[in-house]
Amino acid sequence: MSWIILFVAGLFEIAWAIGLEYSDGFSEPIPTAGTVVALVISMALLGKAVQDLPIGTAYAVWTGIGAVGTASLGIVLFDEPATGARLLFISVIVFGIVGLHLVSGGH
Questions:
Q1: Alpha-carbon span 35 to 94, nearest angstrom
Q2: Domain map (residue ranges) of the chain
Q3: Are 23 and 31 in contact (CB under 8 A)?
Q4: Is the pLDDT of residue 106 over 70?
Q5: How far is CA 18 from the centre of its chain?
Q6: Mean pLDDT of 35-39
């Protein structure tokens, strides 16, 4: 269950990271509020997950999910470049997340 909680925490990390762009430097009230709510939920779920998972593993996976999701959505939503090198390094992060899950006894 902790891995599922950690995954959802990572999804909320993506939400608040993308929310930063929409909040326009925290000048747009509704996107700013959504960003803050997503940040609080993400942190709360991360805190819950680390009750059962090692902090180093959980934090690396959480930030990895956030990095992959945010970089991917940056490409889709904000026309950021989708170069071969960029996609390669995003995939390296995915392999790292999967690897940490496997060596940490996650199912």
A1: 24
A2: 2-103
A3: yes
A4: no
A5: 10
A6: 98
